[in-house]
Amino acid sequence: MLVRVPLPDVPPAAGNPFEYWLAVVQAVVYPPPLPGLKARIGVLFGLVGYVALAALTYLTLTIIDYRRREKSFWVYRLVKRPGGSYIVGNLALLEPVLTCLVTAILLAHLQDEFDTTFDGAAKDQTGVWRIAPWSVLFFQCWMVSFASLQAFVLSADQGAIRFFTPRIANTVFVVVGVAAAICLITFDALTAIRDLDMWAHFVDLSDELRTSAANWSGGAADSVLAERATTLWSQYFEDLRAAVDYTYFLLIVFSITPFLTLVVNLASFGLLFAVRRQIKQNRANLLSSGCGLPPSMEGDIEASCAPVSISLAPATSLPPTNTSSIKETDYYLTPPVTSTLPPRSHSPIPSLASEGGRQDRRAPSRADLRAMAVDKHGGALGERARSLAQLHRAEVDLLLTGLTVGALSLSFGVLSAWVAANLLNYSTWS
């Protein structure tokens, strides 16, 4: 049932009542912009544009690296483990691709806000662009966070795999993701439909008032024309109420889902700890096997070093990983196998001090590892250095991904809760 919202009374000095009502309606729909709004939109546009450029650059470099190393492009795949197959996402591609998509929608939203507020254009699309970013942001946070968690489970020990079996992992990922997606997309569609109807009624009302104002011959407003204008005005507010209600539900769902992704992302930090443990173990093995660096880096000395483990899992849980697979596959996709590194090699980079200098051996720094990794004649030592260097890169990537997605999830949850609390003001803000 349509709730009637009467037009305001016309003061005696107003003259043409239809012109007065038209001015009132436009003042409600097109409020003056807040001070400094143009500058804030400009700053946001610059920040989002910077993120989009950074994501596009990262994606380009990733594609170049994949081609150089002849790796296959994939977004999701099934990875077999003794308990079943995990649905695994490729973080290297998921994160930049989703970031590019999100930033593109945010840029379109900001451009629409600017056009609507300062040029009075594209008002019918404003409501759609205001709700579009929320769902895409959820998809980004959920997919990236769960991809990190999947990588942790696949790289951890057997206890973690027994606790987070493929059936549990795949069910949580699919069911929670699909349920949230259905809710968000449904409320997106309902809100967009109501918002488009609202602006259609506003256009009809404006045209009706302009036509009536042009045909007004003085005196009181014609009752039939006034009733028609009142009906259109009431329909406008009916659609506005419905759009606000749907947006409330949309923001409630979105306020919950970022905190779910935050919990998932915190769990994925276990992978970072596993990587750090493996780096520590590999460095210890490097020293104990006689492959540490002496204080003096002079001379060309033959190294004789035992192979060391490079798998991400702790050395007590899984056997060593084949280092030759690192170039071609992601570190958590291939089950560990026995290393086949040659036992002896000649390297121009010193790695072993004389027998008397063994007592003063130190672990190689990251700069030392990089120097040994680029040496094509390093043999076993160079192979181990490349393994450790890759572990260090994985450590940095995991830390940055975890902190970024965690901060985004927390920020989006707080932001959506704030918008929901101030929705009546936000829904009329141009």
TrEMBL record:
Region Disordered, residue ranges: 337-365
Keyword tags: Membrane, Transmembrane, Transmembrane helix
Entry keyword Nucleotidyltransferase: no
Transmembrane segments: 41-64, 85-111, 131-156, 168-193, 246-275, 398-421
Name of the molecule in the record: Proteophosphoglycan ppg4
Organism: Leucosporidium creatinivorum
